[in-house]
């Protein structure tokens, strides 16, 4: 049965009501859209020569919508018209006149001859082109100001723009996305242009980043959205790692928190090492797991061996084949979980007990092997089968060393004195006892803030201990997208113990094979480039595909300029950038960026990053 002509579709009617303005009124020189005002202009004059993207400046101005109408013409009729024009210009030149008229006529003749050459010799198609500009504004004052700015920009480019007086309704039709060009507007603005000029008119000059999916980081210099999918790999985007560098107060915490929030919304897991307690409130609001790893309830026993995950590096033997540290790590891995963990403990004790002599480090390794043996932990033991309470503790290690010190005080006594602090001193609450950290959350914050006034050796050792534990969490699940955020990474930089940066650099290299990304945040770039650690520090800064550089201090800026070969314009940008402004690098692309968050996200950015 046929539908009645009067039948209405309720859903469509409602949509039309939503999209339609509350009021639409056409005046002689402007239009009223509800609470918005608009004005239509047509470009009526063009310069004899134009460059690429010659409409870009005007089309990119705030509140301006540009509509370009292109209509093919008949070349034969156009050639006849050009020939007549050439004859007319030649006649005027022969008659003579004042200098200004002669100059303009001569230029018009050259333009006509050049157009004829392009049509005849280059076989270029010629089009009628009409450019209509719709200027939008919230009030009358802004509308008038924007109109003057558009007219001034056109004049500066050698063009002329005129308001479509008493033709605003026709102009709106021409400016809208309906491919309608009323005769009155076409008559006022249509001009002949060869194909190359038409092609050069398209104002698509933005060099921004738009992956079509991912998270919005902010806006580029042209006001376009910076939309990135860091899990998209290919070409020069080989990993999902970030380096975020900025001086204090430049907005790095704000940017990272926004990235975390939006990646969580996309289903990623995020693990944060937080030395400044900047993420606790955000974690609470998101129902994440906040763990105090600085003497609170969140103890991580450094002597607990982590299960050995399958090594994805076996799939890529060339990755780091010339790297001595990575080779040693693989050799230890080949011997089993205990051998690999003893390798990690070497770095831990180098950070914690910096003053040990070489012989004392050797006997410490011997003591560790004996303690594991006493706990029935062998080279073949599966760590997953051992309960947290069954692992050796610092009490057992100290008791063994103290016993040896009674037999051979010259070799063991100093080591026993150093280890006594881990059993009876302030450091006992950090490490002496079974691991108590347990969680099941997509957001995990490992907080070490309470160590900010502790000795550097303790702070660095615990930071490294927490970092190695976080890496273990990533190794457990190779299929889940995980971001490991290492805030204030400069804390790990120790010229006397470059192995800490080696561990972090190796994490940066290997995490991509575990569906992960490493986010390194720091304010002291020069620390990473000190001669003692430059080999690993520079690699750590170079490896990430994504680099966010906000405002920099003078020394750091000079170091970054050399490291990343910044242009003069990029150098000046970072020297004078406002809060939240900087340079974003994604593979080989570099864009100026302004970090922006939605109003509903702001409550999550408490503390640092407000």
UniProtKB/TrEMBL annotation:
This is AAA-like domain protein. It holds the Pfam family P-loop_TraG. Residues 244-372 form the Helicase HerA central domain. Residues 477-579 form the TraG P-loop domain. InterPro entries: HerA_central (IPR002789), P-loop_NTPase (IPR027417), P-loop_TraG (IPR043964), T4SS_component (IPR051162). It comes from Moorella mulderi DSM 14980.
């Amino acid at each position: 049965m046929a539908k009645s002509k009067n039948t209405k579709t309720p859903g469509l009617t409602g949509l039309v009501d939503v999209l339609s303005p509350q009021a639409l009124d056409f005046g002689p020189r402007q239009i009223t859209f509800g609470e918005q005002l608009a004005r239509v202009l047509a470009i009526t004059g063009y310069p004899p020569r134009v460059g690429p993207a010659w409409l870009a400046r005007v089309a990119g101005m705030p509140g301006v919508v540009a509509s370009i109408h292109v209509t093919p013409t008949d070349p034969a009729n156009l050639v006849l018209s050009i020939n007549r024009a050439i004859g007319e210009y030649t006649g005027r030149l022969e008659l003579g006149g004042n200098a200004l008229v002669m100059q303009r006529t001569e230029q018009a003749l050259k333009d006509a001859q050049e157009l004829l050459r392009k049509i005849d010799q280059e076989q270029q198609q010629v089009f009628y082109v009409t450019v209509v500009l719709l200027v939008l504004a919230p009030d009358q004052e802004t509308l008038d100001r924007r109109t003057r700015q558009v007219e001034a920009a056109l004049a500066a480019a050698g063009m002329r723009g005129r308001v479509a007086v008493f033709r605003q309704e026709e102009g709106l039709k021409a400016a809208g996305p309906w491919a309608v060009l009323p005769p009155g507007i076409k008559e006022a603005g249509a001009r002949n242009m060869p194909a190359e000029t038409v092609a050069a008119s398209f104002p698509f000059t933005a060099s921004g980043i738009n992956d079509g999916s991912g998270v919005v980081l902010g806006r580029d210099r042209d006001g376009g959205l910076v939309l990135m999918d860091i899990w998209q790999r290919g070409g020069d985007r080989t990993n999902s790692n970030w380096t975020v560098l900025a001086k204090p107060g430049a907005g790095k915490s704000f940017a990272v928190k926004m990235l975390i929030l939006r990646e969580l919304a996309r289903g990623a897991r995020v693990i944060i090492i937080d030395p400044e307690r900047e993420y606790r409130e955000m974690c609470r609001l998101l129902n994440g797991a906040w763990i105090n790893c600085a003497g609170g309830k969140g103890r991580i026993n450094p002597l607990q061996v982590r299960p050995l995950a399958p090594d994805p590096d076996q799939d890529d033997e060339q990755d780091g084949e010339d790297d001595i540290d990575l080779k040693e790590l693989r050799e230890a891995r080949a011997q089993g979980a205990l051998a690999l963990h003893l390798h990690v403990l070497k770095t831990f004790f180098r950070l914690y007990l910096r003053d040990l002599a070489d012989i004392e480090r050797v006997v410490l390794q011997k003591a560790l092997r004996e303690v594991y043996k006493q706990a029935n932990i062998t080279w073949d033991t599966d760590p997953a089968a051992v309960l947290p309470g069954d692992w050796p503790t610092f009490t057992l290690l100290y008791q063994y060393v103290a016993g040896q010190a009674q037999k051979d005080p010259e070799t063991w006594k100093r080591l026993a004195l150093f280890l006594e602090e881990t059993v009876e001193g302030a450091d006992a609450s950090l490490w002496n006892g079974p691991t108590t950290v347990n969680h099941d959350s997509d957001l995990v914050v490992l907080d070490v803030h309470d160590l900010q006034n502790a000795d550097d050796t303790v702070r660095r050792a615990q930071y490294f201990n927490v970092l190695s534990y976080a890496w273990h969490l990533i190794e457990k699940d190779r299929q889940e997208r995980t971001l490991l955020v290492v805030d204030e990474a400069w804390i790990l930089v120790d010229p006397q113990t470059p192995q800490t940066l080696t561990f972090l650099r190796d994490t940066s290299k290997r995490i991509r094979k575990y569906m992960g990304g490493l986010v390194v945040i720091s304010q002291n770039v020069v620390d990473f480039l000190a001669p003692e650690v430059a080999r690993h520090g520079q690699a750590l800064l170079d490896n990430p595909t994504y680099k966010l550089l906000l405002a920099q201090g003078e020394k750091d800026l000079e170091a970054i300029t050399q490291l990343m070969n910044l242009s003069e314009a990029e150098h000046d940008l970072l020297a004078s950038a406002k809060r939240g402004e900087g340079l974003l690098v994604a593979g080989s692309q570099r864009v100026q960026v302004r970090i922006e968050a939605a109003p509903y996200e702001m409550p999550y950015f408490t503390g640092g990053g407000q």
